Amino acid sequence: MQAKLRAAVLRPLSIVCLGLVGLGAQAHEPGAHVHGAAVLRVVVDGNTLNAELESPLDNILGYEHAPGTPQEQQAVKLAVAALRKPGGILQPTPAAQCTLQKVSLASAALTPAMLGGAGPATPPSPNEPAGHADLDGDFSWQCAKPEFLHSLRVDLFLAFPRLHKMQVEVAGPKGQSAATLTESHRTVQW
Ligand SMILES: [Zn+2]
Fold first, then answer.
1. Distance from the CA of 152 to the center of ligand 1, in angstroms?
2. What is the tens place of the pLDDT at every residue in 68-77?
3. Of 46, 53, 156, 187, which is the most buried if we count CB atoms within 10 A?
4. How far apart are CA 102 and CA 18, in angstroms?
5. Which residues make Cβ contacts (< 8 Å) with residue 25, sequence separation at least 6?
6. Contacts of 57 (CB under 8 A, 6+ apart)
7. Confidence at residue 42, expressed as pLDDT on a 0 to 100 scale
8. Distance 83 CA to ligand 1 centre (A)
9. Higher-pLDDT residue of 30, 134
10. Looking at the DSSP assignment, which residues form a beta bridge with residue 168?
11. Is the pLDDT reported for residue 55 higher than 80?
12. Secretion signal: which residues (predicted)?
């Protein structure tokens, strides 16, 4: 009951927020569902690097419902292969010698089997506007030389051309910082 109430309260807020972004307002709720934009939260902790992606599913697949046609199913296969490929879409500073340890993908529109793995650690957020769905990704690396780790190159833009802007939040050894990445500015540094 509590969760249902919460979703009912949150849903109109997200829609209002989308409207504001459409009008060009600068401030908006982090993580709001806006097609073309995504959020990446990066945490550096000793030799562990973690990146949490929150993106409208439209950026990844071009649609936001359970795949029906063979073309839609193929889009899921290609996207999952790209997201799970080590050294593919997210590249830590090469000198830090980081090895991808875990990729966990989740979406309210796709089954865990379609996403090529077991269920997510945390269920997808239920507060997207009606008819929309997100893709959540959790990526973690172990780095042999963490003293050289100071950047992450985000090549998601190349794999998924519907994505144009990414808000990146970093919690690293020097504290917290934020950056906006685009196709032409794909590396966040800390
Ligand atoms: Zn959407």
1. 26
2. 999 999 999 9
3. 156
4. 32
5. none
6. 63, 64, 107, 109, 110, 132, 133, 134, 135
7. 98
8. 19
9. 134
10. 40, 179
11. yes
12. 1-27
What is the CA(46)–ligand 1 centre distance, in A? 36
Determine the distance separating the centroid of ligand 1 and the alpha carbon of 65, expressed in angstroms.
10
Amino acid at 25: A
Q: Work out the average pLDDT over 14-37.
A: 54
Q: Whole-angstrom Cα distance, residue 69 to residue 62?
A: 13
pLDDT digits (tens, 9 = 90+) for 72-120: 999 999 999 999 987 889 999 999 999 999 999 999 999 999 998 765 5
Burial of 5 (0-12, 13-18, 19+ CB in 10 A): exposed
- Residue 27 in this model has a pLDDT that exceeds 50: no
Q: For residue 29, what are the contacts with CB-CB under 8 A and spacing of at least 6?
A: 13, 14, 17
DSSP for 38-105 reads EEEEEEEETTEEEEEEEEEHHHHHS--S---SHHHHHHHHHHHHHHHSTTSSEEE-GGG-EEEEEEEE
Total Cβ atoms within 10 A of residue 17 = 19
> CA dihedral defined by 13, 14, 18, 19, rounded to 10 degrees?
-20
Name every residue whose Cβ is closer than 8 Å to that of residue 153 and which is 6 or more positions away in sequence. 90, 91, 186, 187
